[in-house]
């Protein structure tokens, strides 16, 4: 969950690969997955779909116990706002969700008016504008 991702856990990110146009997504879910490689498209074993993933630089070290690398994966579930706009997340967002426009390598991203509110009528904060507080 994004609340559990610390910036020091993602310092070795070299790039983010987006598999979809994130401009149309109000939020994406993010998690740290244990993966066998630093780079390349990871296998995906959740419901829904993978939207993107992080690639690690050469300084990233594997876990001593498992030999795996912790990499961020961005994903959406079938009941998320992009496919069910009037559903559970018509307003608000899951705990692990962030506005994809605020995510960068080594930066976990933010919840914004866009990610929490969904619709962007006139007068709403611009995409990527951080929520107060």
Automatic annotation (TrEMBL):
Residues 38-66, 81-133 are annotated as: Disordered. It holds the Pfam family DUF6009. InterPro entries: DUF6009. This is Transcription factor.
